[in-house]
Protein: DUF2798 domain-containing protein
Amino acid sequence: MPQNKRESLIFTVMMCFFMVFFMSIYNVACHHGALNLEIVKDAWIGFPIAYCFAMCCDWFLVSGLAKGFAFRFLVKPESEPFKKAIAVSCCMVVPMVIIMSFYGAMEAIVSGGAGWNQLLLIWITNIPRNFIMALPLQLLIAGPFIRGLFRKLFPEGTVLA
Structure:
């Protein structure tokens, strides 16, 4: 877990990159019904704007709310680091899935694949589909990988507050 604001920002940049990239591939693959290099290319093309949007939502909106909820209802500051990481990760996934599913629905409409009258239906359909992918991706792959990579690149005490 990051120890200060600078570490938190670096960690968020890394985690957000990983999650947005792989969730973009997943969503484009679901939309096209296939997974190939063309799908990865299409996901990469839409990635920069989605990443910027997700970073802003994560940093300015979701992170504080998720940590507040986790530390108020799920864990205490003195809890084991593993429990804190799991609690905060779960609390981050739920609102980010809701927000990014809305972003995906808007993207589908703007790209011309759907009409504005379908926005709510697309959004509501995207939420469970994205949640069943994002939660395991976060808990089993992204979380352990990014936490390990982060500490390898930035050992404790090297990023000053």
Q: What stands out?
A: The chain has a mean pLDDT of 95. The two ends are 14 Å apart (CA to CA).
